[in-house]
Structure formats: C-alpha cells, structure tokens
Amino acid sequence: KPESQENRHNSTKRFENHTQNYSKATDSTYRYNDHNSTFSSIDISHNEQWLQHLFDVLAEDEVDHYSNFLYYKGETCDSKDIDGMSEEDYAAFIRKAEQQAEQQRLMRHYQAEQIRLQEIRHERRISYLAHWNQFDINGQSSVVFKDIPWPTTDIRRLSKVDVEDFLLSGIKDDSEIRSILRQEQIRFHPDRWHRWIKRMPSERQKKKIMETVTEIS
User: Fold this and answer.
1) Which of 33, 135, 165, 177 could disulfide-link to 40, CB 3.0 to 4.6 Å?
2) How do residues 104-152 score in pLDDT, each as one tens digit?
3) Which of 173, 171, 115, 180 minimizes the C-alpha distance to 151?
4) How far apart are CA 159 and CA 104, in angstroms?
5) For this chain's UniProt record, which GO biological process terms are given (predicted)?
C-alpha cells in the first residue's frame, strides 16, 4: 500500500528527533579538565553510538520508501520512463531520489565525523603522553591526586571500559595494543607508586591515590 502522508510525517519527525539528539551529544569540546587532572574530550563511544543509531533509523526509512516504490512500479525505472508515470508513480520516484540524496549527504557527514573523532583520539593520546612527560614523578615536589595523568576522560567514573576506551579506542593493530597495555601496566604498578608515597602530602591523598592506582592496574 502506498506510504501515507501520516507515515511520511512520522518518519521525518523521527529522523529530526535523532539528529537533534545527536547534535546535543556532540556539543562538548576538547579541553583540559583541571578537576579530573586529565585531558578530556567528547565521549567518543557515546557519539559513535548516536551515529550508528541515526543511520539505523535512516536505513529503516530507506526500506519503507523503497518498498512503496516497488509497489508502484514492480522495478526501478530510469529517466525515459518518467513521462509515462502516473502522478502517484512520479511522487514515489521523487521521494526515492530525495531519500538517496539525503543518504549521500549523511554518509559524507558520517565519514567526516569519523575522521574528526579519530583526530580527537590522536590528540587525546598526545596530550596524555605529554602530561606524563611533564609529570615530575622522580622529583621532590608533592604528588597530589589532581596532578596525576589518569587514563580516563573522567576519573569520577573510572571503570575498565572507560580506561580501555581512553587508551585503545580506534586502535586495530594487536602489537600496538599490547605495547600500550604493557606501558600502562608499568606506569600504574602499585609497587612503583609505593616508592613515592612520601611525596604524597596527606594520608587522605595517599589512600585516594593508591586505591585509584590499584584499581587501574
């Protein structure tokens, strides 16, 4: 049965809602967060989920439009068939063309967004490593929780998943993954941190730092 005006409206509204929600999800900008003492960025995994959800919705709508078009014609048509189309056939043909154009536009946006997220990951890792290079772990200054480069975008929500996403997201090479994990195991081995426990200014700081180091390790 041909697609009704109400169905087209609901499909369009559903797509608009998802694009608006995606825009809200990507409002965060790359920044240095003093409170968390780490280089923070937009939630990459969350953005990728929204992108995938957006395209799932679009794919569902594509099936609806294509099914309706096949109902009219029984097959796709080229420009030479347009003159012989009925009004309903022509309307379906136009909707199909518009949908394809929109999909192409969104695919370009999707590809650009993937590149942008990959650049953010790269900048985040560079910032994290630079912070470690600057961190005076072998000096005489006090070591306080907020000055430590933690491998997470938000130390308040520390979890295995968050640490893995921060360190490994976007990396496909197994040898590179193993190298990164070995380096981080060395950085956050509890025995290493016990050597600098005297530099921690208070019992509260010692407890907080060592508990977090142990959790990461």
Assistant:
1) 33
2) 888 888 888 888 888 888 888 889 988 888 876 656 678 889 888 999 8
3) 180
4) 38
5) negative regulation of canonical NF-kappaB signal transduction
